[in-house]
Every structure is written in structure tokens, then in C-alpha cells.
Amino acid sequence: MAQPFDYESSNRASASGEGHTDASSLERLAEIAARTAEETGKFANVDAILRIPVTMQVVLGSATIPVANLMKLGRGAVVPLDHRVGEPVDVVVNGRIVARGEVVVVEEDNSRFGVSLTEIVGPLGQGDT
């Protein structure tokens, strides 16, 4: 028998700060959706839906500069961004903020960066600015 997903209790847990430490909340939601769909047969093509590619971006910051200054930029130029070192970065999927995290160096390859998720943003853009 499928376990129903209690959206309200999930929101209360999110508001209290529970479950915001990693991607496990998203993984659990995907697992529940897949199991529910499998058991009820309502969404026979859930695997096809889970394979749909989405665009994910990590926003390190932004800057506003005049076109004249933009034209002067060259190799090695530094453009200061509005985020400071240590501030959380936004994780954006298809134009919507879904999480926040910290930039980390990937252990296997010190020349690559990743994001450690620290907060999953609530549904319908709560926390979205």
C-alpha cells in the first residue's frame, strides 16, 4: 500500500529547519512519487518524467556596469560581484530558486567546484526573491 505524502507536515518540517541539510529531501520526494505512481498505476511513465533534462545554475552573484566599462574588459579583468565570500549561493532550476548552498572544492579534483546544499527552498517560490 502506498504511503501518502503529507504535504502540510512536510511544510511544517521545512519551516522548522528540519531536512534542509542536503539533497535527501528531494531524493525522498522523488522516491515517494515514484513508489506512489508505481503502486497506483496512475503515472505509468514516471520514469520518462524523471529523465526530463532541466537547466540548473548556481548563482555566485551579479554586477551592474555601464556598457563603456564592459567594452574595456579584457583577459584577467576582475568584475566584483554583489555576493561576498562565505555567503550562500542560490541554486536555480529552470529560472526558479530551489535551494541555497555553499561553494566547495570537489575532493577528487581540486580544480573543480561544487555546491553543498544547506537549504531547500519551500514550494511555490517561498524564499524566492
Measure the end-to-end span.
39 Å
Can you say what the CATH homologous superfamily of the largest domain is? SpoA-like
Low-confidence runs: 1-21
Share of residues in helices: 25-40%
CATH topology of the largest domain: Surface presentation of antigens (SPOA)
Annotation field: number of helices: 4
Shape: elongated
Beta-strand residue percentage: 15-25%
User: From the alpha-carbon coordinates, what is the Rg to the nearest angstrom?
Assistant: 19 Å
**Can you summarize the main beta sheet?**
4 strands, antiparallel
Q: Supply the helix-strand structural class.
A: alpha+beta
Strand order of the largest sheet: 1-2-3-4
Number of strands: 4
Mean pLDDT: 75
Membrane topology: Peripheral membrane protein
GO biological process, one term: chemotaxis
Domain Flagellar motor switch protein FliN-like C-terminal: 48-121
Subcellular location: Cell membrane; Bacterial flagellum basal body
Structural key phrases:
cilium, cell projection, 4 helices, disordered N terminus, SpoA-like_sf, alpha+beta, 129 residues, Surface presentation of antigens (SPOA)
Question: What would you say this structure looks like, in words?
Answer:
One of its GO terms (biological process) is bacterial-type flagellum-dependent cell motility. InterPro entries: FliN (IPR012826), FliN-like_C (IPR001543), FliN/MopA/SpaO (IPR051469), FliN_T3SS_HrcQb (IPR001172), SpoA-like_sf (IPR036429). It is found in: Cell membrane; Bacterial flagellum basal body. The structure is a single chain. The chain folds into two domains: 1-52, no CATH class; 54-123, Surface presentation of antigens (SPOA) (Roll), CATH 2.30.330. The longest helix is centred in the N-terminal third of the chain and has 17 residues, at 24-40. The chain has a four-stranded antiparallel beta sheet with strand order 1-2-3-4, with no helix packed on it. It has 129 residues and is of the alpha+beta class. A hairpin with a 7-residue loop joins strand 3 and strand 4. It is built from four helices and four strands, in the order H-H-H-E-H-E-E-E. Helices cover 29% and strands 21% of the residues.
